[in-house]
């Protein structure tokens, strides 16, 4: 069973190795709370939540997820997942208490988290659809210098790969030590 020794687990979920999101699961007796933060929620996001909800038993689980798309680019989902995972590891239980105190719309078994109910760290990363992005990794490179942009993009891709490897390594080590 997933929760032999722990009451709370944080995961970084990879969807076909092209997209990352974070999942926080908390157990209180036989009742589970799941929070999935996905920077670009899609059908596969909701399919995963439905599968988990069925696994734990719909009458024994509250499922929370954001419906709002948080990123407009094609490369920062791992950053959202990583920051979410760090937040959940530190403040997951307090965040669940906060969500329980909010009036949150429930639709088809899922409580949808609005932008203002997301953790502050994620709101700061939120990329507005108008193109005004909060993540400014490329903003210091003049667009008139395509070579510098390509170099910066390569560094950013390497950062994403490193974050993915760190997350996988953490999950592997946790599993080996019997924490999961």
SS class: alpha/beta
Unreliable stretches (pLDDT < 50, length at least 5) are 1-5, 131-141
Total count of helical runs of at least 4 residues: 4
What is the 3D shape?
globular
Strand order of the largest sheet: 1-2-3-4-6-5
Q: Which sheet architecture does the biggest sheet show?
A: 6 strands, mixed
C-alpha termini separation = 9 Å
SSE order, as H and E? Answer: EEEHEHEEHH
Helical residues, percent: 40-55%
Rg, alpha carbons? 17 Å
Mean pLDDT across all amino acids? 76
Strand content is: 15-25%
For the secondary structure, the number of strands is 6
How would you describe this structure to a colleague?
This protein has 180 residues and is α/β, with parallel strands linked by helices. Helices cover 42% and strands 21% of the residues. The protein contains four helices and six strands, in the order βββαβαββαα. Strands 1-2-3-4-6-5 form a six-stranded mixed sheet. The longest helix has 31 residues, at 146-176. It is globular. The model is unreliable at 1-5 and 131-141 (pLDDT under 50).
């Amino acid at each position: 069973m997933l929760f032999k020794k722990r009451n709370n687990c944080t995961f970084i979920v990879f969807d076909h190795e092209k997209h990352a999101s974070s999942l926080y699961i908390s157990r209180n007796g036989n009742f589970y709370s799941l929070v999935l933060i996905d920077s670009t929620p899609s059908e596969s996001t909701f399919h995963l939540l439905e599968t988990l909800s069925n696994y734990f038993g719909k009458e024994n689980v509250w499922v929370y997820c954001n419906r709002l798309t948080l990123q407009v680019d094609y490369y920062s989902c791992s950053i959202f997942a990583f920051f979410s995972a760090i937040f959940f590891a530190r403040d997951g239980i307090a965040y669940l208490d906060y969500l329980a105190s909010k009036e949150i719309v429930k639709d088809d078994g899922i409580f949808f988290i609005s932008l203002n109910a997301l953790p502050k760290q994620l709101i700061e990363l939120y990329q507005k659809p108008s193109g005004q992005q909060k993540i400014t990794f490329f903003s210091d490179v003049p667009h008139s210098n395509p070579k510098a942009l390509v170099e910066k993009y390569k560094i950013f891709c390497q950062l994403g790969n490193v974050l993915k490897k760190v997350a996988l390594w953490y999950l592997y080590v946790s599993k080996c030590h019997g924490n999961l």
